[in-house]
Amino acid sequence: MRYLQSFHRRLRQLRQAGQLSMADVANMCGVDEARVGNWEATDPKQRSYPGVSELLDLCLKTETPLDQLLDMGDGGDSGQLELPGLAFSNSDDLSVALKELERELNRLQLSEEEVELLRRFRKATAENRRMVLQLLGR
C-alpha cells in the first residue's frame, strides 16, 4: 500500500479545503461515514483504504486528480500501481483489468440527461432545490 501511505492526511486536507464532512465523502463514495473515518484514522492499525471504485468516485466527484491523493513520488518502483482491487500478478491478464477499470469509469460518467438535470438543479432557486431534495427523500 505504499501509494496510500499518506492518503489519510490527503483525504482530510481535501475534505477541509472543500468544506466537506465525512458524511459528504461517504455519500460520494457510496459507503458509510464510519468507513471514511477509518480511511482517515491516524493509527495505522485502525486505518483502512478505499477500493478502486471508491477512489475513482472521490476523484471524479471532487474533481481531484488521482495523483493528489496518492504517493506517486519517485520511489524506484516497477511502475505498478498498488491499489486494492487493481493489483496484478504475473498470471493476471492486464487487458481484463483495464476493461474492468474502463467499465468502472463508464459507470461513474454522467449521462446527458443527468448533466442536464444537474445544470437545471444548479440554476434553480434555493427554495426549488429544497423541494426537489424533499421529493427525493433527502
SSE layout:
Blueprint: H1 7-17, H2 22-29, H3 33-39, H4 52-62, H5 94-108, H6 112-123, H7 126-135
Query: What spatial form do the alpha-carbon principal axes imply?
Result: globular
Give the rounded overall mean pLDDT: 80
Overall strand count: 0
Rg from alpha-carbon coordinates = 17 Å
Major sheet size, sense and barrel closure: none
**Helicity, as a percent range:** 40-55%
Quaternary organisation of the protein chains: single chain
Strand content: under 5%
* Low-pLDDT ranges: 74-91
How many helical stretches?
A: 7
User: Which structural class should the secondary elements be placed in?
Assistant: mainly alpha
Write down the secondary-structure element order: HHHHHHH
| Terminal residue distance | 36 Å
Describe this structure in words.
The chain is mainly α and 138 residues long. The protein has 7 helices and no strands. The longest helix has 15 residues, at 94-108. The protein is globular and about 45 Å long. The N and C termini lie far apart (36 Å). The relative contact order is 0.12. The model is unreliable at 74-91 (pLDDT under 50).
